[in-house]
Amino acid sequence: QMADPFLYNTGDRSPYGCLGHEAQIEYLKAYVCRPSFFTDKAVIVVHDVFGWRFPDIRYIVDLIASYGYITICPDFFKGTEPWKSTDHWGDFADWMKNHDPTKVDKEADVVLKYLKEQCGAKKIGIAGFSWGGMAAHHLMLKNPQLTAGVSLYGRIIRDSEERYNLLNPTFFIFGEKDHTISLDQIFLLEEKLKQYCKVPYKIKVYPGQVHGFAQLKPEDMKPDDKPYIEEARKDMIDWIKMFV
């Protein structure tokens, strides 16, 4: 039996009081958090298999907003059920067929239009986690409106040359102990980007970290992991600041 592909121990998570609000954007629901001052910069956050209501992802949205970005996490599952930690792993492949992280272009366009027309955003970046990391990688190959991307432990899908023709600067974050992504795959990604990629990119592997490590709320972190989690977040924000 294969290891659970995206799932990490959701364990006991502390509740989280969100700072943002929910909004309806055309046919999509979204969680939006704005900084306290005007900005024309925005970041789209792509959730993992646990969906747009998962407290960890809302914490990340609020965190990015605190650095001065209009930050939005749309429901890329379009109202369908997210994966739940009680679901059976045997059903995961079927669930994935109906939740393909490379079929997010239409939703991305709806959100980009909203950010530009309703929020006055001029520069827009994207950060995706796990399932969302794959979606962010895909969108950085397809959508020139996204000025920078961060893909956090998104599995590296389909080895074809066009997987490496990134349109704008993209940063890939991985955990060294991620059971879903081997170091070999990461080295291959690096090799291929060197060969094909024409824009700035970066790959970084964080020692001892497992899948999903970067989205833990402070009170859910283990002391040994905390420095790496904080470093990954700082690196993510620095990348966004540099290009968005």
From TrEMBL:
Give an example GO molecular function: hydrolase activity
Enumerate the spans annotated as Dienelactone hydrolase domain: 29-242
Cellular component terms per the entry's GO annotation: cytosol
Q: Which Pfam families match?
A: DLH (PF01738)
Compartment(s) where it occurs, according to its Swiss-Prot or TrEMBL record: Cytoplasm, Cytosol
Signal peptide limits? none
Instruction: Tell me its family.
Output: Belongs to the dienelactone hydrolase family.
Q: What is this protein called?
A: Carboxymethylenebutenolidase homolog
Q: Which organism is it from?
A: Calyptomena viridis (Lesser green broadbill)
Whichever gene encodes this chain, its name is Cmbl_1
